[in-house]
Design brief:
- This protein has 250 residues and is an alpha+beta fold.
- It has 2 domains: 63 residues, no CATH class; 156 residues, Alpha-Beta Plaits (2-Layer Sandwich), CATH 3.30.70.
- The chain contains 7 helices and 8 strands, in the order ααββαβααββββααβ.
- The strands form 3 sheets. It has a 4-stranded antiparallel β-sheet. A two-stranded antiparallel sheet has the order 1-2.
- Helix 1 runs antiparallel to helix 2 and helix 5 packs across helix 6.
- The radius of gyration is 23 Å and the shape is flat.
Length: 250
Amino acid sequence: MNGAAIEVADVLRSYGEQYLQQYPGSLLQERIIDNLTACRTAVLGGHVRRCSECDHQEIAYNSCRNRHYPKCQRGKQADWMEKQQDNLLDVPYFHIVFTLSQPLGPLALQNKRLLYGLLMQRAADTLLRIARDPRHLGARIGFTAILHTWGQTLLHHPHVHCLVPGGGLSPDAKCWIPSRKGFFLAVRVLSRVFRGSYLEELSRLYQQDKLTLQGRLEALRQPKRWMEFVNQLRRIEWVVYGKSPFGSAG
């Protein structure tokens, strides 16, 4: 590769077929890999760039525009970031991350829409609830939340990133209540409330028979095994932490 930086497409061209043989995926995954390996190649066609002064020509191959390819989304990311500048307040910001407990990973993979949605809802509700409590901040807050389902090592790792201004409106909406310098909300309190709230809603989904329980999860159809599973989750510390707003992403 003549010293050029290795890109995702390069890895997939070399190992994508081997990966799919070892880890058979869905048709959607196969299409994504096909799109990424074809990106900026003759497979997707292209166009000719010509200098109007010297008639020099270059062929530019088309992008796959797939949302899973960082190279194709860089421009959209920059545009989105620029648009958000007008929404930033002149206050400190905090980066709060809510992580789904690891034993829930297989269940989440079989119930993506339900459990990922629940993760977003419970994370948001926990932040709003604790911030509103006068024992903590006592304010109505706002924030931006983004769901990630994979970590930096490309392992299944559902978590929600929340970018939160350091303060909020008073209950009567007449003044701004700032958070303490360098501190927003107690992460241990957030963790406990988040865990309890999530498991309560998860159990409700189970009682309403809305969860898919297949393969190795089929044993959870038995109420006794389900209760053992939930009790195990209650004994685990769920990871909620805060860091600087523009530190490394998970």
